[in-house]
Specification:
Number of strands: 0
Largest sheet: none
Order of helices and strands: HH
Keywords: Toxin-antitoxin system
Family: Belongs to the ParD antitoxin family.
Strand content: under 5%
Helix content: 55-70%
Radius of gyration: 21 Å
Protein name: Type II toxin-antitoxin system ParD family antitoxin
Shape: elongated
Number of helices: 2
Distance between the termini: 57 Å
Pfam family, one: ParD_antitoxin
Length: about 70
Amino acid sequence: MSNTPTRNVSLTTELTAYINAQVASGHYSNASEVVRAGLRLLIERDHALTANARPAAHEGARADYRPGR
């Protein structure tokens, strides 16, 4: 990941403590891994929300359909 751009972010004390605890537990090697895992979960959630919203939009369109209009 040597060509990966870096970002500076400000975190609350609670988020910093959580990241430190995750690294200390051995689940992650460093803070960047924790943040990347969190971002991946947000992406998955957003994809799931988008996928779940599509059928509802189609249902609404069918409910508004009136023959002869």
